[in-house]
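S.,

Sequence below, as promised.
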Amino acid sequence: MKMVSAAKFTRAEKALKPARVYGGGAASLYDKNEFAEGEDKLYVAISSDRGLCGGIHSGLGRTFKALHAESPVKKAVVVGDKVKAILLKTMGDTYLSTFNNVGKKQSSFTDALDIAEEVLSHEFDTAEIAYNSFVNVVSYKPIIKPTPSAANIESNDAIYTYDEVDSEVIRCYQEFSLANIVFHALKEQEASEQSARMNAMENATRNAGEMIDKLQLQYNRTRQAVITRELIEIISGANALD
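The prediction came back faster than expected:
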């Protein structure tokens, strides 16, 4: 199981590298400029349907619960059944839509487009995209990346510093950048999940080996005790006949 998880992690890590380039490029405008967040926030939680990967989903769930306790979440789009089940009791009434069948195969840009289109079908000032960011083989961290709406971008005067752009250009850019950021988030989540699953399978393999060794030792001791008892009975019987 560890070898299978390691192979899947290698593929996920390889797919993450180009996705980071596109995601970083799409988010650079938002990182280098200040946009008003507004009160109307839409949260997007990205996880998957698969388990056996440690506490990666519960960690993202705790991040959302902490957010909800600090400032109640009113709108949420949930990707993946795991985080959907974790947040159902606390935030189930805020779900605008949910996506399942996530994580069974590698996500494509088409999947990101579907999620982005669903997000854009709702009104919001800022879309907060939450996912687990891959750090290295043994660690990841949940992060939240804000993405302003087209109206929010248009209201920032810095956009018009170097060139005159119209509303249609800003809208197209916002839609495409949102899809790129969602795609990047999906790839970050996949790499984090596969690394966590690989570590979980390694721990499971080690624990199973230790259990087998203990059971083997117990079996040998029991077998030796049975043989010793039978020898004692045979010797005792032979002495009794003499």
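The first strand starts at residue 41 and ends at 46.

Coffee later?
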